[in-house]
Amino acid sequence: MEKEIAEYLVSPGKKVLLSDYPTQYKGPQVKGNAVLELAEIKEQLDELQERLYAADSHSVLILFQAMDAAGKDSAIEHVMSGLNPQGCQVFTFKTPTSEEYDHDFLWRHYKALPEKGRIGIHNRSHYENVLVCKVHPEYVLNEKIPGYSNIKKINKAFWNRRYESIRNFEQHISDNGTVIVKIFLHVSKEEQRQRFLDRIDDPAKNWKFSSADIAERALWEDYMKAYEEALTETSTQGAPWYVIPADKKWYARLAISKIVLDTFKKLDLKYPVLPINEMHKLGEIKQQLLNEK
């Protein structure tokens, strides 16, 4: 792994303070070179995706979490645009439906897992249940969990069990061939303010803005604390978190692409080798086709 992206990896067991992680990239990379490098990485990912599909032994799950306007949608668009859409599944998780509330909080996310040979991208994820739900514990009441009839009962022990459920879920799918990459796009409050203003000023972006975004912005510190606790509790050897500086979108896209590429390379995927008898058949069929000429 490049030293550059290794710096963004949250080591298992490390207590996370987001103030220790930059939101602004200040390295030597420039935008023009980053665009060219991203294009090269896309070509490599295209070939590696084909190996993933051919090997049919693993799936790759990439999770994106961030505050509003951090650039999740554009990161997914730019980094994953070189992939074959037939082997890639993108899910955006919003407020649960009544059917989803009638199941445990992981149910809808388990349903959305990629099959072997495929890449799954989750725009927001099961982590909403320890992020937005932690800032708004009243949302947990919609799950109708026995013994939790009011928010006073949703205490530290409750959240610890939920973190444990997430770790167990990720360990289970990892043991069964799903490689997990978790990306937190770390944007500054000032950059979010500017992006909100851009959305308001640009008629083509008005649809991206909601008055509810401002209400959530007022809870910024609560969200930062929730993220710190979630990253601390759930960055594991098999499912690590990366905290990516996101104030410059072009750099965040490059960093994410490097992480995804590094993940694929570590799998060391090979194309399947046919049995000897099948190889002989290929030779015979090739000769038949040549004889037709």
Task: Please give the structural blueprint.
Blueprint: H1 3-6, E1 9-10, H2 31-55, E2 59-66, H3 72-80, E3 88-92, H4 98-101, H5 107-111, E4 119-123, H6 132-135, H7 156-175, E5 178-186, H8 189-201, H9 211-217, H10 220-234, E6 241-245, H11 249-267, H12 276-292
Parallel strand pairs: 2-4, 2-5, 3-4, 5-6
Antiparallel strand pairs: 1-6
Helix pairs in contact: 2-11, 3-11
What key attributes describe this structure?
globular, 293 residues, single chain, alpha/beta, Rossmann fold, kinase, polyphosphate kinase activity, Polyphosphate kinase 2 family protein, 6-stranded mixed beta sheet, Polyphosphate_phosphotransfera
Protein model, in words:
Pfam families: PPK2 (PF03976). InterPro entries: P-loop_NTPase, Polyphosphate_phosphotransfera, PPK2-rel_1, PPK2-related. This is Polyphosphate kinase 2 family protein. This protein has about 290 residues and is an alpha/beta fold. It has one domain: 3-Layer(aba) Sandwich (Rossmann fold), CATH 3.40.50.300. Helix content is about 50%, strand content about 10%. A 6-stranded mixed β-sheet has the order 1-6-5-2-4-3, sandwiched between helices. The termini are far apart.
